[in-house]
Automatic annotation (TrEMBL):
Amino-acid biosynthesis among keywords: no
Top-rank taxon, per record: Eukaryota
Record-linked PANTHER family: ENOYL-COA HYDRATASE DOMAIN-CONTAINING PROTEIN 3, MITOCHONDRIAL (PTHR43602:SF1), PTHR43602
InterPro entries, A to Z: ClpP/crotonase-like_dom_sf, Enoyl-CoA_hydra/iso, Enoyl-CoA_hydra_C, Mitochondrial_ECH-domain
GO biological process: fatty acid metabolic process
Organism classification: Eukaryota, Metazoa, Chordata, Craniata, Vertebrata
Role according to the record: May play a role in fatty acid biosynthesis and insulin sensitivity.
Membership in a protein family: Belongs to the enoyl-CoA hydratase/isomerase family.
GO molecular function: hydro-lyase activity
Compartments, as annotated in UniProt: Mitochondrion
Chief place where the protein resides: mitochondrion
Name of the molecule in the record: Enoyl-CoA hydratase domain-containing protein 3, mitochondrial
Native organism: Knipowitschia caucasica
Pfam families named among the record's database cross-references: ECH_1 (PF00378)
């Protein structure tokens, strides 16, 4: 298991350190009708860009988001992804017009399968994925938030799974939300459709941090910078291991994690970090999967 996890992150390497200039200087790399993608110093920013439709996760939006995540995902320069949105709504969830009988079962299957692929991709990709939320996130939009590794939200943000109110229970959002917040909180959200505040979302673990709106970008990018500073293969190995052991029972999880820590120590960067600590200096990461020993 450990060697498989290590090999899975082999392509996600590169030398990188983010500077504060990222706050004001972002290079446009790719523009799509529904998503905007910028990358600078290892931070890829993906912006949901359909505010007139409340950034609904239509099939086209989901495909665009998937493309933006996967584009050059093996680049040595990519260290962290930040997903945000234009407009007052982070995402209203699926486009209900796509879910009418007129669209047909085949289209419905495609919508939900694609959505599930995007949500699992966020957790399967070795690069940490953050959400920067400044507004309303409902249904599949709330699912997107719950699927991200780290979520920073503004104080005005709210979160809900209101599908029950329109006759479509939020069963797929429940997969991500039920694995993120306590069961009774998730079920209240799902059964009532009532929104929760950003502070309640923080209390229940749906988001990582809540900040004033005027500090949202700064706080989000500060965390992204810190992630970028660390050894890339170590972060990737750690993320893969975290999700792997979370799906296991306690004893199996400890067995998996113990094996991975031994493999981590065999990495050149694993030994460099220990030497740097002992020598009381800053580590000089190789950002490669090169081994220090067998």
């Amino acid at each position: 298991m450990a060697r498989n996890l290590l090999s899975a992150v082999g392509h996600y390497v590169g030398v990188h350190k983010v500077h504060r200039s990222v706050l004001c200087s972002l290079r446009l790399c790719h523009t799509d009708a529904l998503t905007l993608t910028q990358q600078h110093n290892g931070i890829r920013r993906i912006v949901l860009n359909n505010p007139k439709k409340r950034n609904a996760l239509s099939l086209l939006m989901l495909e665009s988001l998937r493309k933006s995540i996967l584009s050059e995902a093996d680049s040595e320069d990519l260290r962290v992804i930040v997903i945000s949105a234009n407009g007052p709504v982070f995402s209203s969830g699926h486009d209900l017009k796509e879910l009418t009988s007129a669209q047909g079962r085949e289209h419905h299957v495609q919508v939900f399968n694609t959505c599930s692929e995007v949500m699992t991709l966020i957790q399967d990709i070795p690069v940490p994925v953050m959400a920067m939320v400044n507004g309303v996130a409902t249904a599949a939009g709330c699912q997107l938030v719950a699927s991200c590794d780290i979520v920073i939200a503004s104080e005005k943000s709210t979160f809900a799974t209101p599908g029950v109110n329109v006759g479509l229970f939020c069963s797929t959002p429940a997969v991500a939300i039920g694995r993120t917040v306590p069961r009774k909180v998730a079920l209240e959200m799902l059964f009532t459709g009532s929104p929760i505040s950003a502070h309640d979302a923080l209390l229940h673990g749906l988001v990582s941090k809540v900040v004033p709106e005027n500090r949202l970008e700064e706080e989000t990018l500060a965390i992204a910078e810190r992630i970028c500073w660390a050894s890339q293969p170590v972060v990737a190995l750690g993320k893969a291991t975290f999700y792997s052991q979370m799906a296991q029972g306690r004893d199996a999880a400890y067995a998996t994690a113990s094996k991975v820590m031994v493999e981590n120590l065999a990495l050149r960067d694993g030994q460099e970090g220990i030497r740097a600590f002992i020598e009381k200096r800053e580590p000089v990461w190789s950002h490669t999967t090169e081994k220090a020993h067998d």
